[in-house]
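Fold this sequence, please.
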Amino acid sequence: MTWLSISKMFIIALLIQPLSAAIAEEPPQSPGADLEVVEKDRRSEVRAAQGIDWNAYTRVKLDRASVEFRKNWVRDQRQRSGNIIREDDEKRIKDDLSDLFEEVLTRELVTEGGYTMAEENGQGVLHFIPRIVNLDIIAPDRVRDYVGSAFTDSQGRMTIEMEIRDSLSGDLLATTRHYEEDPHKGYMEWTTSATNRRSARLMLMRWAEGLRERLDEMRGISN
């Protein structure tokens, strides 16, 4: 998809706005109790099944990412800044973030990982099931009465979860959960649709690169 259209640029401005008091919480245990913890810290957790030949998988079937806002986000918008968030506003933001997620991850997997994208289940096909949760937005331009900008020191945060399954058997091979936040700069600067779009893309790119590197490592272990 292209992000050159003005409407797309305007909507992406909604995706991530700052949360100055944001604190990364340790992620809860991922589904799949029989998976072994490969990596875990305050921001991320990766679990994987043992004895998997990851080199046998050369294609990826990617589900559309579901997107959920932080709990009480709509209520807080109304109380803090008077923004009335409609259902179509929520849907538009979710749809555009899902589109951006697919664009970024597909490029990383194909260009850097050497995978081929698949539309159907099949032999050697990994099934990726992504979710974006706890998405925070403050003063989204999309629902203001004017096109404005705000002083911020960070563009915001989100948590990305992923299940990786064998597309034929449905067996759970791995899970990931990763907290992404635009780094706090320590000073305030103007936030615009352009800076929001750039930061949203960079957060997804960092996550996608990390995921692909973990897959490369597991391929190396399989060898």
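The first strand starts at residue 36 and ends at 40. Residues 193-222 form the longest helix (30 residues).
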